[in-house]
Amino acid sequence: MTLKLISIRNLMRRKGKAAFILAGLVVGVATVVGIFTFVEATTHDIAHKLEQYGANILIVPKTENLSLSYGGLSLGGVSFDLEEIRESELARLATIPNHRNIAAVGPIVLGVASVESRRMLLAGVDFKAAEILKPWWRVGGRFPQDDEVLLGAEAARALGLETGQGLSVNGRNLVVSGRIELTGSQDDQLAFLTLATAQQLFAKSGKISMVEVAALCKDCPIEDMVRQIAAVLPGAKVMAIQQVVKSRMEALAQFQKFSYGISAVVLFIGGLVVLVTMMGSVRERTEEIGIFRAVGFRRSHIMQVVFLEAGIISALAGVFGYGLGWASAAAALALSGDGHSGPVAFAPALALGAVVLALVLGLVATVYPAQMASRLDPNEALRAL
Amino acid sequence: MSYIVADQLGKSFGAGAAAVHAVSGLNFRIAPGEFVAIMGESGAGKSTLLGMLGAMNAPTTGRLHVDGIDVYALNPDRLADFRREYLGFVFQSFHLIPYLSVIENVMLPLAVSRQGSPEKRRRAQEALAEVGLGGKAGRLPGEISGGEKERVAVARAIVNEPPVLLADEPTGNLDSGNSREIMRMFQRLNASGMTVIMVTHSAECSGYAGRVMRLSDGRLKTDRRTAVSALRRAS
Ligand SMILES: Nc1ncnc2c1ncn2[C@@H]1O[C@H](COP(=O)(O)OP(=O)(O)O)[C@@H](O)[C@H]1O
Ligand SMILES: [Mg+2]
After folding, report:
1. What whole-number distance in Å separates Cα of residue A344 and Cα of residue A320?
2. B157 vs A339, which has greater pLDDT?
3. Given an 8 Å threshold on Cβ–Cβ distance, is A291 in contact with B97?
């Protein structure tokens, strides 16, 4: 015979009440777990997509008469009248505090040349970085090597060239290594060369026109990285490309705030359910508590009995609440079908958190009923019966 | 030697003109091993007095000493410990916990003690055997008769082997056969050295006691040692 046995026996007898308290807590905990899991998975997903959106920081020379559209590639014709950045300066990017967040650095050399008697914009790029910087490229053929050229869809159509055919650029003979399928961006009108070939063609050896940088920035603010890069490249202008991703992140943050608000309300209601039910239960048990006190239980013993009951239910609620919340989040993610692949993994820390949350909520809501029980006057409690 | 000493012990409810003096200024002493019956009309203050003797009902005047302890000077925790160590209670309406088995009900006062479970069980079995219920340890209170419930209540009251047993109309809900059983049990416990203080309406029951205190309007009307009890004891 222990206090624990009394608690367990009472719970077994009042299964309906116990189930009611359990349900109140489970709903609260499941809501929090569900929302947390959903937000976490979605954030993870977006962060993953962030990488697929390619460059999000642009480094261009400081010039005054520049009208920049996307990436500084304005076909208006002024933008390649640029001062150049030295290629060697790019090594400094590795020295910024957040250099680990740099996924790819893509130097670009821009120039206008006569191609088969047309004036065309050519771009020398580092194709090793292209996979990260231009994830939307679908290349037919392969990436060019020196003295080869990769044509945008529009450029290829205008020139009427197929892979393997030759063309003359500023009097130099190049071979078409492949073409990029229609992207809907300026890339469609461009011809891409290796960095070295472009530098030779435009007599810009060791120089570059602009740099695209892909920063993996789930947690670090992109503005910070912009500032850090600007500090190591004082001669250049560093800009963050505002992207869809950013607005999606903002929408998610909005949802997060909203749903945490909802969780707080649901938790509060769960706590109220516990409080009210426990108070009713204490009132019902007036006689019992009177007996406990008469046979010599201290007030603290009465509180122990009540808290033990609340604790047992709460721990169960934590486990069930985690399970239910996890299942709900998995279902919601599957329904939203937002490109999230694979099942949501079991998160031990979150499961532990759910149990702790349920315990804290259940026990806090029980403080008042437990005190009420412990303050019952045994003489009054037994006289009334 | 006095074991229980009431000194101007009184209790009133309410204040001013509306105050009810349930018990007013009682002085008495009870020696260890006495068997006392408290009698009186309904509303005379018997239960109030027993509650005060039982460390459950703080008096509004006077003091109570038990075994040299100024009972109501104890803090709430010590008061609970005092009840556990010194007193056993038997109530008219049994007051068993419905969801605990007979033996668990008997073990209740041991729930907060440090003994191991086997030891608690052994003591409870002993107490049950004492009241002749050794065979019904596993039943729930709902599954036994009224007379048996009262015996479980007695077993629970004596499981701690307290020096004092307090009973408020222990036979109030029992037929005469069961009442007699309970009284014989009290007599046996008293013979083994336990001080018994019992509130009763029944003249027959009071006949088992060695001393009868009669209350009226919260005052002690008579306080007699009886010869009858000696006869009963002998029988
Ligand atoms: N808690 C209480 N509040 C108010 N009045 C009480 C309380 N307890 C007892 N009384 C009053 O004190 C008097 C004595 O009651 P009680 O001791 O129960 O009498 P008895 O047990 O002799 O029938 C009665 O008038 C009763 O109404
Ligand atoms: Mg009474």
Report:
1. 17
2. B157
3. yes
Ligand nearest to the CA of B92: 2
Q: Are B19 and B192 in contact (CB under 8 A)?
A: no
Please report the residues numbered 206 through 225 in chain B whose beta carbons come closer than 8 angstroms to any beta carbon of chain A: none
Q: Is B54 on the interface with A (CB under 8 A)?
A: yes
Write down the residue that tokens 């075994």 correspond to.
B67
| Closest C-alpha to ligand 1, atom 11 | B22
Is 90 exceeded by the pLDDT of residue A291?
yes
Where is pLDDT greater, at B227 or B138?
B138
Burial class (CB in 10 A: 0-12, 13-18, 19+), B32: middle
* A4 → chain B, closest CA residue: B111
pLDDT band at residue A62 under the 50/70/90 scheme: confident
- Count structural domains, chain B: 1
Ligand 1 atom 4 nearest Cα: B13
CATH of the domain at B71: 3.40.50.300
pLDDT per residue as tens digits for the range B45-67: 999 999 999 999 999 999 999 99
For the CA of B14, the closest atom of ligand 1 is: 4
Query: Is pLDDT of A195 > 70?
Result: yes
Full residue range of the structural domain in which residue B188 is found? 4-234
Nearest chain A residue to B86 by CA distance is A296
What is the residue type of B35? F
One-letter-per-residue 3-state SS of chain A: CCHHHHHHHHHHHCHHHHHHHHHHHHHHHHHHHHHHHHHHHHHHHHHHHHHHCCCCEEEEECCCCCCCCHHHCCCCCCCCCCCCEEHHHHHHHHHCCCHHHEEEEEEEEEEEEEECCEEEEEEEECHHHHHHHCCCCCEEECCCCCCEEEECHHHHHHHCCCCCCEEEECCEEEEEEEEECCCCCHHHHCEEEEHHHHHHHCCCCCEECEEEEEECCCCCCHHHHHHHHHHHCCCEEEEECCCHHHHHHHHHHHHHHHHHHHHHHHHHHHHHHHHHHHHHHHHHCHHHHHHHHHCCCCHHHHHHHHHHHHHHHHHHHHHHHHHHHHHHHHHHHHHHCCCCCCCCCCCHHHHHHHHHHHHHHHHHHHHHHHHHHHCCCHHHHHHCC
Instruction: Provide the percentage of residues in chain A whose pLDDT is more than 90.
Output: 40
- Nearest by CB to residue A294, choosing from B56, B76, B85, is B56
Prediction pTM value:
0.72
Task: Provide the number of CB pairs (under 8 Å) joining chain A to chain B.
Answer: 83
DSSP B170: T
Kindly state if the Cβ of B92 falls inside 6 Å of ligand 1: no
- Reported as a single tens digit per residue, the pLDDT across B62-118 is 999 999 999 999 999 999 999 999 999 998 888 999 999 999 999 999 999 888 999
Please state the domain extents for chain A: 3-48+249-383, 56-240
Query: Hey, which of B48, B52, B213, B215 would you mutate to test ligand 1's pocket, going by the most ligand atoms within 8 Å of its Cβ?
Result: B48
Neighbouring C-beta atoms of residue A123, cutoff 10 Å = 23
φ, ψ of residue A124 in degrees (nearest 5)? -90, 125
For chain B, the maximum distance between any two Cα atoms, rounded to a whole number of angstroms, is 56
- Fill in the DSSP letter of residue B5: E
Among the listed residues B165, B153, B149, B163, the one whose alpha carbon sits nearest the alpha carbon of residue B208: B165
B50 lines ligand 1 (CB under 6 A): no
Q: Cβ(A291)–Cβ(B108) under 8 Å?
A: yes
